[in-house]
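Weekly puzzle thread! Below is a chain. First person to post its structure in token form gets bragging rights.
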Amino acid sequence: MRYAYAITSALLLGGATATLALQPGTAQVAQNEPGAIQAIAPKPGAPMSFADMVAKLQPAVVNISTKQTIVQQAQANPFAGTPFGELFGGGGGQGGAPVKREGASLGSGFLISPDGYVVTNAHVIRPGAKGATVNSITVTLTDKKEYTAKVIGQDADSDLALLKIDAQNLPFVRFGDSSRARVGDWVVAIGEPFGLGGTVTAGIISAINRVTGQGGAYDRFIQTDASINQGNSGGPMFDLNGNVIGINSQIFSQSGGNIGIGFAIPAEQAKPIIDTFMKGGSIKRGYLGVGLGGAVNEDAAAALGIPKNRGELISRVEPDGPAARGGLKVGDVVTKVNGKDVTADQTLSYLVSNVQPGQVARLDVIRNSRPTTVNVTVAARPSQEALAALVGGGDDGFGADDDDGSDGSAVVPTSGNALGLTVQPLTPAIARAPAVNVDATVQGVVIAQVDPASDAAGKLKRGDVITAINGAQVRSAADVAAAVTQAKAAGRPQVLLLVQRGRGPGAFVPLKIKS
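Winning reply:
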């Protein structure tokens, strides 16, 4: 199950079944061929019934299931080496041999050609657990005929996959034009929630171009209140003319059930990818090699002296990456990519991902409150696994100060400032201390004490490392004081700190200046 974290937990959907109705002796056309649906579509406004429309479309929707082998390391016997060791399973303290068990997954898909090409979500056919291997993929039509499917192409970033089954004269549907979809339009979803069998739900489009915060080239969805649940993944979303305008992909839910917020991949994004798979091609997208510190909200804008809701902050630049070679720096605010504004609905990640690798991206940047331009030759985006390795496995997060960072080490405060912080230069010995535990390459000042009456209380804690303030690097308490003085002289009520906590990614933290 997949989650859209930036919205909170958004569970991906499951599968759907379909019905096969062959019509021998007649010229075969798409189930949603122009003219076939319009004549039976409900009247404009509140529809009288979707029954005729569903009867025409449902034969092209299929069920997709996988058989998987899951290998798990046996747990160590906690009683090993004691008189009870043999009684409670014997074995050594390191655990027994790996244990194999069978697994399965269920999802939906739909036929897009009479010779058996099937579209679904990539996560429907991928291993469902760590250590799992997919052994086979089965496509089941609603007349219960089963076919072994071959994977033609799949892409985790877009969550799309194309399968092929060996069959002919199958019912199929075509993609429609999702760019013409409007908020308030009726839509129909066909799926198999919770394995209950073919289920049809209807609703309206709640939003278009919805950004969930997952990043990348495809973080723009059609949001609907049509009931979408676990088991609907990969199923089609139809408009009232029977066109596939979306592929049901995710839900927003804290319980796992439908609460009226579902997401579908728009057809205008899905079709070019599916067409590429049909031609035997692979999907490539752009990559800068940076960490994003978030949009410029009101606090960050006040600290930097720039307009709010304009651009995104750069919190990390990968050494020797495309951005580093192009001259992009930590603390830069990127406001445009090739003339297109960076906004909440058109994020930096989205814009860069849609630049072809090898092309030059012209970035409009605000650096130290001044506009400049950076030209970066975009590289090919690495796999999700490679990106996760670049970010690192640190699990330290920024939030309330629930730990004073005390470890008994001798960290002597050397200076205070108007931020309510006492800091000291970061030395190699301090960097290795358990309360700090940052990479040896990190440079900055370490926080030794936080004034509980300051704005920093609850945001920062002892052991955090400040690497920059308002885009300027800091290496001493004097640097911190100078940055605060400069902000005051510019009439700014706060400053923006770039802070490293442990091995996690750096984060921007706005702090109010004491009057």
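Puzzle host: Confirmed. Bonus trivia for everyone else. The radius of gyration is 27 Å.
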